Amino acid sequence: MISTRAQFDAIVTSMATGFDSTTLFRRVIEPETGTLAPDLARYLMSLDFKAEDHARFEVLSEKAQDGALSTQEREELEGFLHVDSLLTVMRLKAERSLAIANAG
What we know:
Elements: H1 5-13, H2 21-29, H3 38-46, H4 51-65, H5 71-103
Helix pairs in contact: 2-5, 3-5, 4-5
């Protein structure tokens, strides 16, 4: 979804953030522990936004960089970023789980 770290940082920096639910989710999921079954881990690795969602994100991202987001668009972009963060945490756990399964 987010093509570069700089792009991610620019968007996040431009937004006011409150409670960090991704940090809480990370503590619950514990991505550093590889405890998922391989089939579940592979499934989690396959989760991604649909092509039209990727395209919408790009539009919103460009508007954010130009400072041209409406309130509704800002909320939509925040939703994309939040879901992307949650997917990242789940993928980290899945990657760790597969590495352990493949090593054993």
